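ok so I'm stuck.
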Amino acid sequence: MLQASDFISACTSLGYTFFTGVPCSFLKPLINYIIQSPDVDYIAASSEGEAVGIAAGSYLASRKSVVMCQNSGLGNMVNPLTSLNFPFRIPLLLIITLRGEPHLNDEPQHELMGQITGDLLETLHIQWDFFPDVPEKIGMVLGRAGNEMAKTGLPFALIMKKGSVGKTDLLYDFTKSNQSLAEPAGEFKSKPENRMSRIESIKIIRETFCDDDAIIATAGKTGRELFTLGDTKNQLYVVGSMGCAAGIGFGIQYVKPKQHVIVLDGDGAALMKMGTIATIGYYKPEQFIHIILDNEAYESTGEQYSVSSSVDFCHVASACGYRRCYRADTKDDLINAVNSARAGKGPSLIRVKVSISSNSDLGRPTLKPYQVKERFMKFLTRGDKSV
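replied:
not stuck anymore, here's the structure
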């Protein structure tokens, strides 16, 4: 058995200073220590897939990142691990607990995952090793993980067995000050048939923001339309991992709090990982603007309806802690909302009602995802925007 301080000290010496994830009882001593450590940042994610998105954003902002969860949560991570980390070549250190280990008396829901954890990681092209159980193994295991990630550009997992880390008490004060809810501004004025198209609204948004703003576009036609309007170094097209764009943007803004970050989300994507809105509202990144382009449909897959027509994203965001919330469905209201959001402290949410309409010959990014990533990372590291 090792102590949490042994492992975290070794991690920080290698540059791993950003941790996120969802707790597990096996991880309790490690997470308790991390929460109270002044040397690392810890983000409590609402889901394991969200944690991968947040950590990916941290990595894009040049922080080596660690995602922690139990193996049951590995299922929630499959989509971003395969459609974000793999095509973009984003290496993350994963700490996955081995619930349901054969011969371990554990809850029945962990039985199957306990049998297949290693095989599942290998199927995802993620190499792994067992989490060290004595201090003498830490350097060797972390060294192997670092070497493999440098070689492949992919995550590496440490599978943690029960009792690997000694007890750590949690003394952290979780008291949060109460904040009055932000009253959403604006109203929807246009009939559905008269609304702007999504690409028209994206054009307005691009022209309203400046070249120093980082723009992250969700999967599907949103990213393709952003690319069609003009490919620039400050744009990241999230070609997969639906629902993770907001988490990626949050991870970037958390690490680089002076960097303005704009996320172009869709109604379906926002619904898929609505917990990310709660995470963002809790941590309150001040230069974060979350724009939901809502056409009440999954347009990229054939215009099937989403359930967004019965959801008030502005009140959801306000209830979760966003400081500013806006509604817009006209050019003037959208420009005013963007300018107001950029001038004040965030996080801010702008819900833009748009029509279902896109060009049949819509192009796709011509750069490979990892090339877009490398260019975007260079953009984020220009000058000193990290403090």
